[in-house]
Design goal:
This protein has helices at residues 19-24, 47-59, 71-77, 95-104, 118-127, 144-161; strands at residues 9-11, 29-32, 62-66, 84-86, 111-115, 131-135, 166-169, 176-179. It is an alpha/beta fold. An 8-stranded mixed β-sheet has the order 4-3-2-5-6-1-7-8, sandwiched between helices. The longest helix is centred in the last third of the chain and has 18 residues, at 144-161. The chain is globular. Mean pLDDT is 88; it is low at 170-180.
Length: 180
Amino acid sequence: MAGFLFPKEYYDSTYSIDFQRYYDMGYRGVLFDIDNTLVMHDYPSDENAIKLMERLKSIGFGICLVSNNDEERVRTFNDYLKVEYIYKADKPLAKGYKKAMKLLGTTTENTIFVGDQLFTDIWGANNADIHSILVQPIDKHEEIQIVLKRIIEKPIIKLYLKNHSIQTKSIGGDRLADHR
């Protein structure tokens, strides 16, 4: 039933993901949503996002922001990150993801996508046949249209969690723990 909305994996936070493990598995590109995935909605890039991008670059990843926001929002968010970006990506359509992979020189087999919404981010990544990772939103205070989507997302996430778990880093270490 809503399989096209199911992520391949679900994490409590973007910052809990062990990206080195994905690189070791052969992934070479990471695509990110911005709002509520990397920072709170409409916030500028912060120290956590900057450090994450620096770490991913040092590992060897190509990185691209894939956002439905306008160019000004995405460009200014990227000022300190210095990664590729796609604005007005028309998620959940696959075209923005494909354009991002072309910019990075990656393929569907070696690219992952990280986002916080099922109906744009995950559906789009699945449409593009990319390994999709859902993260819990950073901020619970969202615009009304997103709040309404979250209401519809809840039963789908509940269904997903019947056979899957939310992954997180354990306190004091890099070992991942599963939480159902």
